[in-house]
Specification:
- With 567 residues, this protein is an alpha/beta fold.
- Among the domains are: 27-199, Rossmann fold (3-Layer(aba) Sandwich); 322-415 and 426-455, Aldolase class I (TIM Barrel); 463-502, no CATH class; 529-562, no CATH class.
- The protein has 18 helices and 17 strands.
- It has helices at residues 37-41, 44-54, 101-110, 132-136, 157-166, 170-180, 255-263, 285-294, 311-319, 334-339, 346-358, 377-401, 430-444, 457-468, 473-483, 485-491, 493-500, 535-546; strands at residues 27-33, 59-65, 90-94, 126-130, 147-149, 184-185, 198-199, 226-229, 231-232, 251-252, 271-275, 298-301, 324-330, 363-370, 407-413, 450-453, 529-530.
- The strands form five sheets. A six-stranded mixed beta sheet has the order 2-1-3-4-5-6. A four-stranded parallel beta sheet has the order 13-14-15-16.
- Strand 11, helix 8 (285-294) and strand 12 (298-301) form a beta-alpha-beta unit.
- Helix 3 (101-110) crosses helix 15 (473-483), helix 7 runs parallel beside helix 8 and helix 15 (473-483) packs across helix 16.
- Mean pLDDT is 91; it is low at 1-8 and 511-516.
- Bound molecules: iron/sulfur cluster (SF4).
- Iron/sulfur cluster binds next to loops.
């Protein structure tokens, strides 16, 4: 019996829906989620790509994950057939979160594949990546990739494999990939900060699309839950949030598609998770939920906006035996909510809390951020005051239930994100973050039934570096692989300071920019990406934040606000 550490990491059993393709002439794709099985299989985007690639007749796609801790020397093999990673024709990383970049290097090294594209040759598999983290800013991992597929998978997968078979030699494929496939990006054909634009591809509409769990397993964060996406993007445009900008215009799955997808859960599980950044903005949400409960499913929801929580929805939550509701005010003061364009008032929050508790949903999770642009200590003190007031209302209603739940505050450090109005911002410095955490700790200590989870300054720095980084950031990632992040942040202190703590000047919107061009500010590493977002619109939103002015939500009807619908 081989020792546990050298035994290849195989998936836990009891999976429903896996796809195993055997036979000659198949192109073998190793689809890698650069984190553990549990995390990867909880990701609907990853499951969707697995399904799509296996729809291609002559492609066999198998899943690979980061070997569990303690298996540092284990072979990196696939779930389906145990095939070692280095034996696939194409290795495709599906990356949703920047913080997983370090695992990507670990996995390639553990499989004996040189991480840098420039160190690989024709006998090595092609190494590529896709996923939202990549189409926001691929530059920190560009040196590790032969190519990227940027955008929604449905726009790229079939076209890519059509091309792949046309070219018998990888040099030709990589030479013509960008011209033949809009959305493909071959880094070693572009100097950093290249002027040549690379389009990011998005589906025009979702009329013929269903996005749902493909492989059902109990070894995920959503134990045996069948996930169904019901809306892509979000119309509300909170200025820190990528979902509100990069996926514009928000697109709605037709009700029939959602109900058909839910039907696929029948016989496999009774648990359905509805997924979207703006669940309650689906025009048929009440019918969808009614259909679910009428067919005996227990429903759960990825996010709920307090300002949209009406009696019907709360009834449904209660009937679905939801025990904890999540509300994301993000900022404590009305001023700061205007700055970030979070169109949620104190009244919305209090009413939602009272309705939820009255319906026996006794636990609350509240999301807040600190370190936001234009934030003051008073705004952070307002988080303390708002939480105390929520607690009072919570208490008043709970007393009637004679039971008291818990309020959990999840405080995150604001991380600037590409393709949002706050893309020009920088991470707040350590002293400011620590001081503001002190205000929260002091203000809420000894508040019974209130738990406060504070962020780590180090993790915030790593996230900001990987979110805003350029190609030199790849050196930091490799150093972190060898010696850990603390050493890497010190060793590359100048680069990290320049990326993390340097605010980039926001283009000033003089009259002439209304015509469509922006006065030249220093280029940002991801400026060569064209997602259709009109940069002057983002800059205007930054200036409106400075003026503490809210902006209307995206009407989802081809207006001219951000001009995405023009492209
Ligand atoms: S142009 Fe208007 S409708 Fe289209 S995405 Fe922008 S805000 Fe939404």
């Amino acid at each position: 019996m081989s020792s546990p550490s050298s035994r290849p990491s195989r998936p836990p059993p009891a999976e429903k829906g896996i796809i195993i393709k055997q036979g000659k002439g198949l192109t073998r794709v190793g689809l890698v989620y650069p984190n553990t099985y549990r995390t990867g299989m909880s990701n609907l985007g990853f499951q969707r790509v697995y399904h799509l690639i296996n729809q291609e007749p002559d492609i066999a796609c198998e899943r690979i994950f980061l070997p569990a801790p303690g298996q540092k020397h284990a072979a990196v093999i696939s779930c389906e057939t145990g095939q070692p990673l280095q034996r696939f024709d194409i290795i495709l990383f599906s990356i949703s979160f920047e913080n997983d970049y370090i695992h990507l290097v670990d996995i390639l090294r553990q499989a004996g594949i040189p991480p840098r594209s420039s160190d690989r040759h024709h006998l090595h598999p092609l190494v590529a990546a896709g996923g939202v983290a990549c189409f926001l800013n691929p530059e920190p991992i560009a040196p590790f990739m032969d190519f990227f597929l940027l955008g929604e998978a449905e726009c790229l997968i079939n076209e890519f494999f059509g091309l792949f078979h046309r070219y018998s030699h990888r040099t030709d494929l990589l030479a013509f990939l960008e011209t033949d496939l809009p959305g493909a990006y071959v880094p070693n054909r572009h100097p950093p900060f290249s002027e040549k634009k690379i389009p990011v591809r998005f589906l025009e509409n979702l009329d013929h699309i269903q996005t749902h769990t493909c492989v059902l397993t109990s070894h995920t964060a959503f134990k045996d839950k069948f996930l169904v996406e019901i809306l892509k993007g979000c119309p509300h445009g909170c200025r820190f949030c990528t979902a509100g900008f990069i996926y514009r215009p928000p697109r709605i799955y037709p009700k029939e598609n959602v109900l058909n997808a839910m039907d696929k859960a029948a016989g496999n599980t009774r648990k359905i998770g509805l997924v979207s950044s703006a669940i309650l903005d689906h025009p048929d949400i009440a019918d969808i939920c009614q259909y679910g409960t009428d067919h005996g499913f227990s429903l759960s929801f990825s996010s709920l906006r307090a300002d949209k929580l009406d009696g019907t929805m709360i009834d449904l939550l209660s009937r679905s035996r939801v025990k904890t509701a999540t509300i994301a005010p993000e900022a404590g003061s009305e001023r700061m909510r205007r700055v970030i364009n979070k169109k949620m008032t104190r009244t919305d929050i209090f009413q939602a809390v009272e309705k939820l508790v009255a319906k026996d949903i006794l636990n609350l999770r509240l999301y807040f951020m600190i370190g936001l642009p234009f934030e003051t200590d008073t705004d952070v003190q307002a988080i303390v005051d708002l939480t105390r007031e929520i607690k009072e209302r919570f208490l008043t209603v709970s007393r009637k239930q004679k039971r008291m739940g818990t309020i959990t505050l999840s405080i995150n450090a604001f991380i600037p994100k590409p393709a949002t109005p706050f893309q020009w911002a920088c991470l707040a410095d350590d002293a400011t973050l620590k001081h503001r955490m002190g205000i929260l700790r002091q203000g809420l200590k000894q508040t019974p039934n209130v738990i406060v989870n504070l962020p780590s300054v180090k993790t915030a720095k790593i996230s900001a570096l990987l979110s805003l980084g350029d190609r030199n950031t790849a050196d930091v990632i490799e150093t972190a692989c060898d010696h850990g992040w603390a050493y890497a942040l010190r060793r590359h202190a100048d680069h990290c300071r320049q990326i993390i703590h340097t605010e980039t000047s926001v283009p000033d919107l003089s009259e002439d920019s209304a015509a469509g061009s922006l006065p030249a500010g220093p280029p940002l590493p991801w400026h060569f990406l064209d997602s259709g977002l009109f940069e002057p619109f983002l800059a205007k939103e930054w200036h409106r934040a400075e003026q503490e002015t809210q902006s209307a939500s995206c009407p989802m009807i081809r207006c001219d606000q951000c001009r995405v619908c023009r492209t």
